[in-house]
Amino acid sequence: MAAAKTRKKSNVSKEELLGFYREMLLIRRFEEKAGQLYGMGQIGGFCHLYIGQEAIVVGLESNTIEGDQRITSYRDHGHMLACGMDPKGVMAELTGRIGGYSRGKGGSMHMFSNEKKFYGGNGIVGAQVPIGAGLAFANKYRGNNNVSFAYFGDGAANQGQVYETYNMASLWKLPCIFVIENNQYAMGTSLQRASSTPDLYTRGEAFGIPGEAVDGMDVLAVKAAGAKALDHCRAGNGPYILEMNTYRYRGHSMSDPAKYRTREEVQKVREERDPIDHIRDMLLTGKHSTEDDLKAIDKAIKKTVTEAADYAIASPEPELSELWTDIYAEAE
Amino acid sequence: MAINILMPALSPTMEEGNLSKWLVAEGDTVKSGDVMCEIETDKATMEFEAVDEGIIGKIVVPEGSEGVKVNAVIAVLIEEGESVDDVAEPIAASAIVTAAAEPVVAESVSAVVVEQDLPEGTTFKSTTVREAICDAMSEEMRRNPDVFLMGEEVAEYQGAYKISQGMLDEFGEKRVIDTPITEHGFTGLAVGAAFAGLSPIVEFMTWNFAMQAIDQIINSAAKTRYMSGGQMTCPIVFRGANGAAARVGAQHSHDYATWYAQVPGLKVVMPYSASDYKGLMKSAIRDPNPVVVLENEMLYGRSFDVPEIEDYTVPIGKARIWRQGDDVTIVSFGIGMQYALAAADKLAEEGISAEVIDLRSLRPMDTETVVKSVMKTNRCVTVEEGFPVASIGGHISATLMQEAFDYLDAPVINLAGKDVPMPYAANLEKLALVTTEEVISSVKSVTYR
Q1: Could you give the domains of chain A?
Q2: Nearest residue in chain A measured CA to CA from B230
Q3: Interval A301-321: pLDDT, tens
Q4: What SS3 state is found at B6?
Q5: Is B227 on the interface with A (CB under 8 A)?
Q6: Residues of B designated as active site
Q7: How many angstroms separate the CA atoms of B245 and B300, rounded?
Q8: I need a surface site. Which of A203, A208, B336, B355 has the fewest CB within 10 A?
Q9: What residues of chain A lie within 8 A of the CB of B226, using their CB?
Q10: Are B7 and B27 in contact (CB under 8 A)?
Q11: Nearest to A183, CA basis, from A108, A243, A258
Q12: Given an 8 Å threshold on Cβ–Cβ distance, is B233 in contact with A329?
């Protein structure tokens, strides 16, 4: 795994660094709070935390324009926060309340936002990939300049429908960026034990799709790679694959004891590659911010997250009549 | 020794075809592999090659002949030095010999058609189911630029079953899209396009192949509306041939009616007549929800009267009473209707008056019409081609028990396909499917005749 020292230095503004810091920290604190609420029984079912992977969505979202779409798997809280969805609505969905994005009917894995062009939140591993290409198909059909991001993990990368999608996306030159969030473990199975080839970004070669491996723990590297991929797609050259090498600090879901890896392995990544610490170091060593500045940001984010949690617990459960609504759309 | 050249069967369901063109003339010598003539089936125009070597002694069926039965003698091949007159059997007589297999369908559109809700003075045009589906899709594509058709062979090939014939020419490759053979992938892709606000029509060459894609149909298309608390819409149509065709074996003969009818979030229609195919297909395309349209290959070539009404639609979720009666209610849908209607005709001759209801839609299902009818007739037989376990008929029975128990004078009989994978052998396949005779005997059983 690439160590912190391999990261490229770039001319990045203080504002941008602070923005990245804030957004990544929001995701981390939000997820920590979600984990806490799960432990308290406020969140039920499956809950997959994004801690460790924050740089990916924050870096990629920094290049998007109005109308670009995104879709991902069930590890989706970070994607929602990064595209600007309200933490209160996300947290209230986790607690299954009427104030949630899906009125309490979707839960952690199933949230959507038409406004932010976030298409889920999908519980079936890999199913979001062709759907993401379909969003791109709609862009091409309409002749707009938008690009769709289809996020999936190293586990989904072995699903057949991913390759069916690669074929069509390349054949029809769909403006779709396939983002493989390679966090090294598909639930409890390491990449080495599940994949015949370790380099997932090369798996588009057979379809003529360019791919690139990116340090997914470095938000600046992610942003740079995302910009390149977006240019490729917006220029009408078809899809692009970005393999983000990343790591999740927590288990697959809240109920995963993560016995398949050592505590030392996790600790090493936390110490050497943490995406938030990296930006924090840049802010401090570059004399952009003081410890006090950052403490103030931390405090503000904690407040946002606490408010989201309070809202999520105060928001009522859906009315019982909600059981029967939202099954069908009414004809206009 | 003269050889009779017979009209070939060029598809599993072909019973007759048109001899559109002879490419050889009497007196010409042909050898194996030479193209002799062009034969137009209901699906395509095919070249027919010689198998044996010889001289075309006589062309029995002239070009331009329509409705030439499979196995009819279309020409006679003779050897050098032989004369057509040497052929012992009179050729003309055998030209109209039909295929050994008896026709699958006893036409019975003579039944009294009621409850069509058509304006007075409506005129009708005889239309095949195939044309009706094509007309419906084309009309909706003219009406809404967001509607497009995708599937295997829908564009350049003009449709594996010729449903989309001419649509590529009219709408272009942007809107009539050939996909690779990749059901799981293109179904998911179409669902994504629908989430983004387009209105895809996804053609499955047959529904058997849609099992590769059933996750996208159910988990993605059907459930997202609910999972999103009403935010997302998925205006998509999944359509294609469903159920048994003719001797295509177990993997190509599955009826999925109950599979999809079970899923909240989907709408499911399974029409019988061309008018319902047209009207329901148009409604399906306009519907803001995912709609499964279960078609039937055996019906594609069948003609029915379709009302000549501009923008003819049929509401999803409403049954149609084809024939009114007092003694028994026969409930069916899709191709099952042909047995129900044929049985009703024969039963009428014996003085048994059957009311025949075509469900047309399986979700939502118009059980109200069925219950109302059974309250009048007090007896019910259901007819379908799918498997008997957890069948549509079973659901109807349960509904009748709950809502019309006191009105029933006999246990409801559910006729279905047999509980076996579809066999290939002609006799066994026939045995596996429901028959008119079974409908008749079941009606007699529930009416204690």
Answers
A1: 14-315 (3.40.50.970)
A2: A326
A3: 999 999 999 999 999 999 999
A4: strand
A5: yes
A6: 183, 252
A7: 11
A8: A208
A9: 105, 326-327
A10: no
A11: A243
A12: yes
